[in-house]
Hints:
This protein is about 50% helix and about 15% strand. The protein is an alpha/beta fold and about 130 residues long. The protein has one domain (about 1-130): 3-Layer(aba) Sandwich (Rossmann fold), CATH 3.40.50.1010. α3 (about 40-45) packs antiparallel against α4 (about 60-70) and α5 (about 80-90) packs across α6 (about 95-110).
Amino acid sequence: xxxxxxNNLIYAHDPRDPGKQLxxxxxxxxxxxxxxxxxxxxxxxxxxxxxxxxxxxxxxAWQDIQELRLVWxxxxxxxxxxxxxxxxxxxxxxxxxxxxxxAACLEAGVARMYSEDSFGRxxxxxxxxxxxxx
Length: 134
């Protein structure tokens, strides 16, 4: 299974860097068997506010999430994700929110996470982290 980090969803709607926008759109359209992480969906809704001056509305962001929910598997966090995130924090020194995303991927059986943020490594406990913009 695959997952994408919030930055991919934001870049898909941000025309300021056409190269990143095209890469993000291509990635999102090409992936199959994708987990939509709760944390990513929430962060995307919040971060999409910065695209409002570019003509992208908050309502559009909500609609995007609704559409993604139809084709991607929703992954909701559990207390086990929080426990695993704490262990990841201790072991790898990554940020709390990054640890939550990685832990959610690991719990859901995600093999590859596409993110501009490498979390300082390309593999965490068997989760391959791929920067599609590199």
